[in-house]
């Protein structure tokens, strides 16, 4: 279940990053406090279960970058 959550957050993160790079409605990717809380909870859960280590390094960096820049 946790891998699914991390995957969904990764897809949303990628969509926001590439959408902003292409100039496609960057306001769509503005995150709310609730989204940040969910990302934080998914990160904590992934690190506790060891799923975080299984993710590719690039995916980890992208996830953390989106969290850092938007939360």
Descriptive notes:
- The protein is mostly helical and 71 residues long.
- It has one domain.
- The chain has four helices and no strands.
- Helix 1 packs across helix 2 and helix 1 packs across helix 4.
- The radius of gyration is 12 Å and the shape is globular.
- The two termini are 24 Å apart.
- The model has no long low-confidence stretch (mean pLDDT 73).
- Keywords: Signal.
Give the structure's gist in a few sentences:
By secondary structure, this protein is mainly alpha-helical.
Question: What are the key terms here?
Answer:
single chain; 71 residues; signal
Radius of gyration: 12 Å
Give the averaged pLDDT, no decimals: 73
Total helical segments: 4
Span from first to last CA?
24 Å
- Low-pLDDT sequence parts: none
Shape: globular
Which assembly state applies to the chains in this document?
single chain
Strand content: under 5%
Structural class: mainly alpha
Helix content: over 70%
- Largest sheet properties: none
Topology order in helix (H) and strand (E) letters: HHHH
Question: What is the strand and helix layout of this fold?
Answer:
Layout: H1 2-21, H2 33-49, H3 51-54, H4 57-70
């Amino acid at each position: 279940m946790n891998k699914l959550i991390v995957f969904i957050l990764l897809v949303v993160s990628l969509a926001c990053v590439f959408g902003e790079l292409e100039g496609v409605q960057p306001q769509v990717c503005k995150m709310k406090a609730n989204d940040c809380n969910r990302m934080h909870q998914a990160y904590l859960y992934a690190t506790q279960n060891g799923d975080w280590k299984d993710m590719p390094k690039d995916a980890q960096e992208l996830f953390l970058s989106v969290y850092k820049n938007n939360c």
